[in-house]
Amino acid sequence: MKSTPEHDARIANMTFASVYPHYLTKVQKKGRTKEELHQVITWLTGFDDAQLQKQIDEKATFADFFERSKLNPNAHHITGVICGYRVEDIENPLTKQVRYLDKLVDELAKGKKMEKILRGS
After folding, report:
1. 56 exposed, middle or buried (CB, 10 Å; 0-12, 13-18, 19+)?
2. CATH number (domain holding residue 33)
3. Residues 36-52, buried b or exposed e (16+ Cβ, 10 A)?
4. Is 117 part of any domain?
5. What whole-number distance in Å separates Cα of residue 18 and Cα of residue 107?
6. What is the model's pTM?
7. pLDDT tens, 25-66?
8. Structural domain boundaries, residue 11
9. How many domains are contained in the chain?
10. Nearest one of 44, 62, 59 to 7, comparing CA atoms
11. Which InterPro entries does the entry link to (predicted)?
């Protein structure tokens, strides 16, 4: 499934703050914690809790969020299908990064061990 330019633009302009509560609800419903969610986000982006809160407070778009991040060098090991897209086949770099985050949150919610989610780190 190939994303369209309109889809990529919609993702780029979506704010992290608007999606974060959904991530948190998703993982907490499955018995995971806010701390575990933050651990996953930190692994992918390099943001500590204070930096993450700043992104939320500033209502950073995903474009800004990932531009400010230091993407984990092992992020390319995140593979599989999320939201109907095979992550490794997504061409737009920003859309791929957002789907990396979606995939990690999904794995956390599904009860995967943290070591596997963080790709052995």
Report:
1. middle
2. 1.10.8.290
3. bbbbbbbbbbebeeeeb
4. no
5. 20
6. 0.94
7. 999 999 999 999 999 999 999 999 999 999 999 999 999 999
8. 5-112
9. 1
10. 62
11. SP1917_dom_sf (IPR023204), UCP033199 (IPR014580)
